[in-house]
Amino acid sequence: MSIASSDTSFERHLPFDGCFNFRDLGGYRTRDGHALRSRRLFRADGPHALTDADGAMLRALSVTTILDLRTNDEAAERGHYAAVLPEVVTYPLPMTDVLPEIDELPTWTDPEVVATRYLEMLDAGHEAICEALAILTDPEAFPAMMHCSAGKDRTGILSAIILGILGVSDEVIVEDYALSGPAMVRFVDHLQRTYPDFKDRLVRIAPALIASDPAAMRGFIGRLRSEYGSFEHYVADLGMTSAVPYLRANLLSV
Q1: Do the beta carbons of residue 26 and residue 40 sit within 8 Å?
Q2: What pTM does this model have?
Q3: What's phi and psi for 13, nearest 5 deg?
Q4: Between helices 126-135 and 111-124, what is the axis angle to 10°?
Q5: How far apart are CA 30 and CA 170, in angstroms?
Q6: What angle do CA 213, 204, 46 make, to 5 degrees?
Q7: pLDDT at residue 10 in the model
Q8: Distances (CA, A) of 253 to 17, 28, 30, 35, 214
Q9: Degrees, nearest 5: CA angle 22-26-32
Q10: What is the rounded CA–CA span in Å between residue 101 and residue 29?
């Protein structure tokens, strides 16, 4: 199954000016014939430079819950969506305590390295993942949004877990991950314009920021299956099996 076969009656990418990787997970189909409901669960990058028009568009989505996967330092330094969504409930759920060192980032263009790092982040972030799944069992939590700074790595891991336990195929999860590539080009352009004094550093890390190789997510899923057996077994290992029927009820079409 490919993304082309999902529901295309709505626009998956939302064209904000001040965030670059904001999209709807609705429309993806499960192996048992259901589909994720549109405008229920969004994945995104950070609120880098939200405009007044962005704020109006965000409020029109009626988001009530935000899962913030960034480190505490990132959240403190880079702002919050709550600044333009005053009624939203934000849950700080850092999936890692520290970000990769600048000297390490160039290796993040290698899909094998990225897949391994994703599995390490999955294991380190198990408490955040448990809490995220628990929050999303509440029907009052929707529409909901999950985000990190780029909307690609940590958000990609949590998106993969949610889509996987809902029954979306591995290949569709991989294709969804790869959609971050063009958005990251816009993100890097924003960084270059906003921080011209850091041009040399950005040149070094830009390839890693942009890299959204399908092989990286495919490798991560393979490693997850090798270690846990399946998405379902992974969630069982977390002690969160009871969350699955609630997630299905809240996110899937009848």
Answers
A1: yes
A2: 0.93
A3: -80, 135
A4: 70
A5: 10
A6: 65
A7: 47
A8: 31, 11, 10, 6, 27
A9: 145
A10: 37
Closest Cα partner for 49 from 78, 23, 28, 29?
A: 78
| pLDDT of 7 | 46
Rounded to the nearest 10 degrees, how much is the dihedral formed by the CA atoms of 235, 178, 95, 209? 160
Residue ranges covered by each domain of the chain: 15-248
Separation of alpha carbons 26 and 239, rounded Å = 26
Chunked in runs of 10, what are the mean pLDDT values of the chain (254 residues)?
A: 44 91 97 96 96 96 97 93 94 92 87 96 96 98 97 98 98 97 93 87 89 97 97 97 98 90
Distance of CA 93 to the CA centre of its chain: 13
- In terms of CATH, what superfamily is 15-248? Protein tyrosine phosphatase superfamily (3.90.190.10)
Output the pLDDT for position 244.
97
- 143 prior amide bond cis, ω within 30: yes
- Cα separation, 63 vs 41, in Å, equals 9
Give the pLDDT of residue 100.
84
- C-alpha distances (whole Å) from 115 to each of 153, 159, 183, 202, 248 are 10, 15, 20, 23, 27
Tokens 């704020």 belong to which residue?
Answer: 55
- Please give the backbone phi and psi of residue 75, each rounded to the nearest 5 degrees, phi first: -60, -40
| Integer-rounded Cα radius of gyration of the chain | 17
Helix ranges (DSSP H) in the chain? 52-60, 72-78, 111-124, 126-135, 154-166, 170-178, 180-194, 199-210, 214-228, 231-238, 243-251
